[in-house]
Amino acid sequence: MENIQKNRDLIINKIKDVHKNSSFNTSETPTLIAVSKKQEDYKINDAILCGQKFFGENRVQEATQRWESRLKIHNDLELRLIGPLQTNKVKQALKLFDVIETLDREKLAKEIKNNINDKTKTKSFYIQINTGDETQKGGINVLEADNFINYCKNDLTLPISGLMCIPPSNEEPAMHFSLLKKIAYRNNLQKLSMGMSGDFEEAIKFGATSLRVGSMFFGERQY
Question: CA end-to-end span of the chain, whole Å?
Fold first, then answer.
């Protein structure tokens, strides 16, 4: 059985060490988001028991099944959608997630705008940027990023607080983290969701404010 407490302590200590020695050491320490998609129930329960408050999920349906009852018991958890969002799942997502990190197209932005209200649970959105211009990945194209951010913030008045990216697996992540930071800076956005199990230390050096860690936290998934 995976020792979640030990894994979590190791990751948090590593985050603190890297952050302390980075040029962003006067900012808040990045938040650890435990990516719980497809993980076994006992691992999720262990994570909550050892104090983990932030979790990331890839699919609305799966997240609903996993978290609906748990959130009734644990009302201090924050759930983030870090996978693609279909327009027909927007209503469901807005009721479940505190943060949606994968806003990446006009049609989706309009659907969110049409369904958001005072009772909506989601209070914050990140725009996903496709920094590697990969056709198989979600995210707005880099060249369209500024216009899209402006459209979401000003035309639709959505609460956009940051940006998110998933660098190409075959490229050095540093250049993608640097690019995301530049786009955020010129659009006055403070939050950066970047860095996963294999590259979160590098992401911290470029100003990541949250890190999405799955396999290093929970161990390998059982498919």
Answer: 16
> What CA–CA distance (Å, rounded) separates 19 from 173?
17
Q: Give the CATH number of the domain where residue 179 resides.
A: 3.20.20.10
- Domain range for 131: 4-218
What are the pLDDT digits (tens) for 1-48?
Answer: 579 999 999 999 999 999 999 999 999 999 999 999 989 999 999 999
Q: Of the candidates 103, 53, 107, which has an alpha carbon nearest to the alpha carbon of residue 82?
A: 103
pTM: 0.96
Taking the C-alpha atoms of residue 189 and residue 186, their distance in angstroms, rounded to an integer, is 8
Q: Would you say residue 223 lies in a domain?
A: no
